[in-house]
């Protein structure tokens, strides 16, 4: 049987696959354009996302929007999701068991979207999606190719909020991403 977006949303809404289901306020499924060729994958919902059930609505969302805008990209043309669909208390790093429990949802999202470009935001996503020993500082902006998909990673918006000097580095990465997207259209 082939799942639909609606099926995935319903499964996530009812999910009890890991203990985060007991502490979350609302699960946060990916959001955006189901026809997008560009998928952004981050780590896990923050506190505001947990309240609203929407990815990147807090301060890091504002920063992400400005980064996208500066590079001629727009959230409405992109699909944005997270490795975890539930907020880890205190914004701690996701546990291995939580990432494993949640991974099928990301697989279904990717299967339905069939993005041509995947961008991992931060170490947690890059290490889960690109390579377990991925180092953002050294390897951000580097492209990897898998089947019909180009993958890369850049700094997580929260890391840029902590160290604004990373903004220009991430902007350069996103300008390359926008270029790649234009080439492969
Ligand atoms: N940080 C993330 O990794 N994801 C969100 O959705 C919000 C903040």
Could you explain the architecture of this structure?
- With 185 residues, the chain is of the alpha/beta class.
- It is 45% helix and 14% strand.
- It contains nine helices and six strands; from the N terminus they run H-H-E-E-H-H-E-H-E-H-H-E-E-H-H.
- The longest helix has 18 residues.
- The two termini are 30 Å apart.
Structure class: alpha/beta
What is the straight-line distance between the termini?
Answer: 30 Å
Count of individual beta strands: 6
Order of helices and strands: HHEEHHEHEHHEEHH
Share of residues in strands: 5-15%
Total helices: the number is: 9
Report helical residue fraction.
40-55%
Question: Topology, please?
Answer:
Elements: H1 5-13, H2 20-23, E1 31-32, E2 38-42, H3 47-52, H4 59-70, E3 79-82, H5 96-113, E4 117-121, H6 123-129, H7 136-139, E5 144-146, E6 149-154, H8 157-162, H9 166-183
Parallel strand pairs: 2-3, 2-4, 4-6
Antiparallel strand pairs: 1-3, 5-6
The chain binds uracil.
Condensed summary:
The protein is α/β, with parallel strands linked by helices. 45% of the residues lie in helices and 14% in strands. Residues 42-46, 49, 55-56, 60, 82, 158 line the site of uracil.
Key phrases:
185 residues, alpha/beta, 6-stranded mixed β-sheet, binds uracil
């Amino acid at each position: 049987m082939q799942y639909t977006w609606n099926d995935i949303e319903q499964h996530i809404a009812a999910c009890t696959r890991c203990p985060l289901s007991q502490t979350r306020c609302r699960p946060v499924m990916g959001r955006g354009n189901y026809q997008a060729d560009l998928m952004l994958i981050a780590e896990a919902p923050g506190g505001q996302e947990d309240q609203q059930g929407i990815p990147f609505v807090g301060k890091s969302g504002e920063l992400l929007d400005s980064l996208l805008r500066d590079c001629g990209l727009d959230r409405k043309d992109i699909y944005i999701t997270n490795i975890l669909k539930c907020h880890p208390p205190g914004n701690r790093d996701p546990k291995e068991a939580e990432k494993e429990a949640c991974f099928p949802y990301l697989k279904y999202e990717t299967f339905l979207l069939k993005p041509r470009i995947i961008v991992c935001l931060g170490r947690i996503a890059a290490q889960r999606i690109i390579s377990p020993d991925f180092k953002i500082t050294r390897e951000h902006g580097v492209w990897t190719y898998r089947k019909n998909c180009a993958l890369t990673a850049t700094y997580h918006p929260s890391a840029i909020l902590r160290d604004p000097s990373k903004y220009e580095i991430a902007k350069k990465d996103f300008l390359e991403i926008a270029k790649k997207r234009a080439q492969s259209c």
